Protein 1
Amino acid sequence: MPTLTEIAALINAPVRSDGQREITGVASLADAGPSDISILSADSYLPQFLATRAGAAIVVKRVKLPATTKIPVLIVDDADQALSRVLELFAPPVPCPAAGVDPLARVAKTATVGSGIAIAPFVVVGERTRIGSQCKIYPGVFIGDDVVIGDDCQLFPNVVVRERVTLGNRVIIHANSAIGSDGFGYRWDGTKHAKVPQIGTIVIEDDVELGSCVCVDRAKMGVTRIGRGTKIDNLVQIAHNCIVGQHCIITGQAGLAGSVTLGNGVILGGQSAVRDHTAMGDGSMAAACSGVSDDVPPKTVVSGIPALPHRQSLREQAALRRLPDLVAQLRKLREEIDQMKQDRAK
């Protein structure tokens, strides 16, 4: 187990006492025991900090510690970043499939796999598919024909990667996600909704991570693209012909309609939705539960339904909350005016 001195060196923080104390885990202030290290990231958590049983704490520099602080503290500029490094010390290894191709897997004779591969039971790999080296393919994964998968990828149980999809290097796809379903395209032919063929493909670039139950639809024509370094949370829908830029963050239950374009570094809050053929510029953000229906300029924060610049949205929400009082005032004024009219008529 690492000592407090070793953890301090890892996060570049001074340690003033009890440096040889062994730390066996990481826990919240409420749950930590004498051998755990915890985190204090804001003044609002000071009551929990004063009551904690933790053996040490990572504390952000801006927090004003009381003079009565007894446990060792590691002062840092960014507590979340420091905590992330410490968590890596204690993270248990993720169980991996055994090296090689399991006899219960079905790999097409025309498929090729790289060195150091691990393909678990009940995996299906289609014709002419190419899988790079050091990939880990977990049980129940389906990989269709003519798929290209780069090096060091991880596909967790029951992931589906349909035909003609391309994954870059170090792509992680969590359980039950579906990549390459048909885009949602129909036309009314006079009697029924006739399906429009979806003949395009999907490219997922290097270092992308998709959570569980993410759906990325293939393009009607051309490509649906997820840019390098983008991270997508669980239960997200990416529709056909969307272009998602590099290093975007898309959080749970967000949805992109067809042909949406997100620039680099865009952030979408939970349950936000972006209308078809809408573009969001580099570095823009949509707050949780926003409905984005018009283009968003770069580095702009929007919120609400329909999404507006955040400050404007807050003003409108504040005004809306005053509406019942304003209606009552208006009713009273109208009654006074009617009374004045009646008095004059007399």
Protein 2
Amino acid sequence: MQELKVLSPTAILGYGFPVDSFLAGLERNPDVIAVDGGSTDPGPYYLGSGNSFTDRTAVKRDLELMLQAGVKRKIPVIVGTAGGSGAESHLNWCLDIVKEIAAERELSFSMAVIHAQIDTDYLVAQVKAGRVKVLEPGKPLTVEEVKLSTNVVGQMGLEPIVKALDMGVDVIITGRAYDPTVFAALAVKNGLDKGLALHMGKILECASIAATPGSGSDCMLGYLRPDHFLLEPLNPSRKCTTTSVAAHTLYEKTNPYILPGPGGHLDLQATKFEQYSENMVKVSGSKYVPAEQYTIKLEGAKLIGYRTVSIAGARDPIFIGQIEHIIAGVRERVADNFRSLNVKYHLFFHVYGKGGVMGELEPETELNPLEIGIVIEAVADNQELANTICSFARSTMLHYGYPNRIATAGNLAFPYSPSDFKAGAVYQFNVHHLIEVEDPCELFKIEIVSVGGYTNA
């Protein structure tokens, strides 16, 4: 095969894309329409709770355009990490949307559903057998942590998706998948270079973020050829440059030359970026290096408590100048007040304007802003206790006395009433490990489903 074209509509399913850009991509007759549906970037809540971080209406809008185009033009449609995190509840959430679209638009197609949730009993057995390894800089996984997890998923590689394509399906919806795989799978199935395919997938997963001006809500087309690939943004207001593409290659990587993934890594030491046309870039030289032992990354989250937050602002320069002292005093007052109850809680103060983003890593330690925003956060074993701790901390800081205070009516301004927000369950990533497998497909059950009973025009 001399060329394979991959259309990436958007950085994450539900982030949207201009219809004109999508139509421009279809005019180029792509061989596959692929999109990444999730990420761990929004934090552990979504994996732990089983909820999607993307909006259902937005996801349906994107999927509707993709499915109609793919089914009617006989272009395979592949969605990775369905529902944002790829656990069973996320996968089912996305499948409901797919079936709803099919019914409303009278579409019929064969669909492969690739499951990625890991059974707790199975994982416990693998931990005991020594097949679960540390992913640095983490700690060894214990049986206790596995049992505390509400959801654990495996990040599938290319092989389950290639296997599904070999079954001749029209649509593939996967649980948790390594981001580049949905873009690279058809190319690898057709014998094109795995290293180039995965590198192109690494860029296409974020759609036009690799263009300038960049956008995660616009389309990109990749042209994979035997010894290189080309990238073309489909909006005439954007272009790819060697700088924008090379910079995106460094995105989300700890090593500029090595990109690890399921079963091996990309070696980018010989990668070359060339300006192919005014808006397209040519990339060559990327190589795939297989590992001696095939491993799959595991991701899991556990419930650690319940959260209440209060948001306030302050503009008094005397108060701002003593904020660290005041926070220490409020912490001490809260601890003293509830010491006799022997309760466990965590109390955080995020001071925006003075280290609210960087925390202890903030280099501008002498910064004295005109105003600050304060987020008071309490996490406890139950919602009622979190409410109590946050409320007490908020009222204590509101009326806290500090040296040279002028106004005694209150130190804080609250933008909302009620001032405290019950944020609910709090989750923490507790599984971030590697599991050794003999078969890259052994963790990922493939289910074939016939959708709709209509005659597609």
Protein 3
Amino acid sequence: MIEKVLEAFFRHWLLILLPVIVIPLDVAASVLSTPPQYEASAGMWVEQATYLNYSIDDINRYLSPAQNQRNRLVELMQTRSFLDAVAKNTGLAEIAARPTGSDDLRDIFARDFESSATGDHLLTLKFRAESRDLALQVLSTIFTSFRTRAAADRYGQAQLAISFYQTNLSDAEATLATARADLAKFLAANVNIATTLSRSGVDVARADPQFAEAQRRVDAAQRDADKARESLDRAELDVSAGTKGFELSFRLADEPQASLTPSRQLKKALIYPIAALVFGVILSASLLFLFALSDHSIRSIADLAPDTVILGVLPHLTPEGVARRSGPAVTRRAVAFVAGAIVPLRGGKAREAS
């Protein structure tokens, strides 16, 4: 097997070594051709105000506030509306106006924007651009747009909840008014029950089944109306408290700052060529073994199958005094010699004798 591998390498050495050389060089050239960029960074402080009694249903309780906001920001960065809103207020407006502006913006932010949760409450934002002013401008716009979008989403959900509870309260009050009207009609038609109610109270009047049923409907409607009113008051309190808490717990901890000099990313300059080199070595090794395994030629008895019937072996004879010409056979014999199969080469001695 070693002989086949070595012979396949010497036979196809150019094709095998090509991925190891070409792929890392292409990746290194691509990384080095990227112009140096300014990097802007900012710190965003996020937390849930525990001193305000309000609920946030879209928060994952098992993640930190910074991780929750980072997940939301990553999802927003995948939408065209958010990217267009950021680009239109920055120097990227020209790119957004192109026919392929959405795809170009998505590639730019995927390559040059980073967000990471540092601890439980600090969210670090970074953006790189060839212009220092553009890097600062885009990073500030991202924070402003993200905060505005989060506030708008929360306000829209709150208004939807308030509208729902207001509808429930209106229905409950209408049902209560109908039940009270029915009770008033019953008392007007039954003077004796009304007299008993005014003298002895509700408990004695409940002895009449019809009055008891009418009073029960009124009490049930009253409870439903009270519950709907309580839910509406709680929703309005949540909206008010949530708005105040959002303003207090979603703020810019560190103002955007950019590097004074442009630089290339060391991560891409080092990791990407190394990864390309590893990939090239794997590809070259795969090609080498593919060539070796696809070579089914028989060079010795050891290459035959165990059940092969051997009728005879024709020895290889080298006539004395005949000079051996250089050719591919010499290379194969040299490879076989390295692999352990010693093949006598007496061409040199024959040339000396002649």
Protein 4
Amino acid sequence: MHTPQFIYEDNWLAIVNKPCGMVSDRNEHVSNTLEDWIQIHYKRQQSVRPVLMHRLDRATSGILIVSKKKSATVLLQSMIENRQIEKHYLALVEGVPNRKQQTLNQFFLKDKAQHKAIISSSPLTNAYQPVSINYKCIDTKDGYALLDVELITGKYHQIRSQLASIAHPILGDSLY
């Protein structure tokens, strides 16, 4: 597995590139997470209180924001909640969508027993939550499409499950 890399850093925040295969947040089942790596990196800097502002699935690589001060954490949390920060992902999917771009407004339920998300076109119970993504087709080749996916909400496996629900699973995703 590759080592994370800093892309940008100032007194308030850092932007870190998380490699594929690394778990983002600490948990009792996995060691050597991105959060662990960040904590070790800032261990000797007492004025820094690093907080990972969002997460990526283990199999996903990409950049993440790390807040370094409490005031920056509060500001970034507010910006994320108010959708002032856009989250874009590149996804290589099986098949070519009929529409070059589309907003998917669906309903989500986390199936804890199967460790996956259930997507529905309507809320089947009160436990379902609305979820949304926008996608734009960037390129196609040999029956595959490269999509720019903008995450509007942000739930467990949301992009993976929503794309699979329209018959365009992410290439290599064995769960969906």
